[in-house]
UniProtKB/TrEMBL annotation:
Keywords: Oxidoreductase, Signal. It catalyses: L-methionyl-[protein] + [thioredoxin]-disulfide + H2O = L-methionyl-(S)-S-oxide-[protein] + [thioredoxin]-dithiol; [thioredoxin]-disulfide + L-methionine + H2O = L-methionine (S)-S-oxide + [thioredoxin]-dithiol. Pfam families: PMSR. It is an enzyme of class 1 (oxidoreductase). The keyword Signal applies. Residues 70-219 form the Peptide methionine sulphoxide reductase MsrA domain. Residues 1-32 form the signal peptide. Its EC number is 1.8.4.11. This is Peptide methionine sulfoxide reductase MsrA. The gene is msrA. HAMAP family: MsrA. The keyword Signal applies.
Length: 243
């Protein structure tokens, strides 16, 4: 059943005003959080993390023959989904919840910040056209990996920056990517590397949200900016159908 508009988070409901009052919103909504040491070499040293143990069991995901899957959380899944749906080599993107402690969570529960889930996307891709490392490059360029449990005005553990790995190869690539990119940011990267546990597909209302609601306030004020950044930074990776 579609989720009614009034169940959206306050930051999304206020999105039409965000473009005008963005500086005020970002200043007033900053969430108090314990500091992350700039000297830490552990990308999982996130004091606000309240999900499953980082050694939780990985759940196998079924894919089509010749297809692979990546699971990424970079804030609002409307944004992340919109970006990767445009990328060459990506067959499908599904929005959902992962990394929490409650079975079959719904949107309101996740937004309540008590289940430990992150808003995330599962990306099904063709490894002959792209790879996990390329997906991570897009991921890091299209969100802020240095803000703890926050992307812009969206705050809470459900908006954490996280890479949910499906195997040891992905874990190693994620670690090396974070180490490599660490020198490019003024603040330390707080992106988590978590096991890809059970992924719960979000309500139909959230699937393909930007494509179906391009004129919604949040889409115009926030999602569209992410898409434009992808277009600028990765023009050579845009699907022909998305140009």
């Amino acid at each position: 059943m579609p989720v009614p508009a009034f169940s959206a988070t306050p930051s999304r409901l206020l999105a039409p005003f965000a473009a005008v009052c963005l500086l005020t919103v970002l200043t007033s909504c900053v969430q108090a959080a314990p500091p992350v040491s700039a000297k830490s070499d552990d990308p999982n040293a996130n004091p606000n993390y309240n999900g499953l143990p980082l050694d939780s069991e990985i759940v196998e995901v079924k894919t089509r023959p010749g297809e692979k899957v990546a699971t990424l959380a970079g804030g609002c899944f409307w944004c992340t989904e919109a970006v990767f749906e445009r990328m060459e080599g990506v067959n499908d993107v599904v929005s959902g919840y992962i990394g929490g402690k409650v079975k079959r969570p719904n949107y309101d529960q996740v937004c309540g910040k008590m289940t430990g889930h992150a808003e995330a996307v599962q990306i099904y891709y063709d490894p002959t056209k792209t790879n996990f490392e390329e997906l991570l490059k897009v991921f890091f360029k299209t969100h802020d990996p240095t803000t703890l449990n926050r992307q812009g005005a969206d705050g809470g553990p459900q908006y954490r920056s996280s890479i949910f790995v499906h195997n040891e190869e992905q874990r190693e690539i994620a670690k090396k990517t974070i180490e490599k990119l660490g020198e490019e940011y003024r603040d330390p990267i707080v992106t988590l590397i978590e096991p890809a546990t059970k992924f719960y597909v979000a309500e139909e209302f959230h699937q393909d949200y930007f494509r179906r609601n391009p004129n919604a306030g949040y889409c115009r004020a926030v999602v569209a900016n992410k898409v434009r950044k992808f277009n600028r930074e990765f023009g050579d990776k845009i699907k022909e159908s998305a140009k």
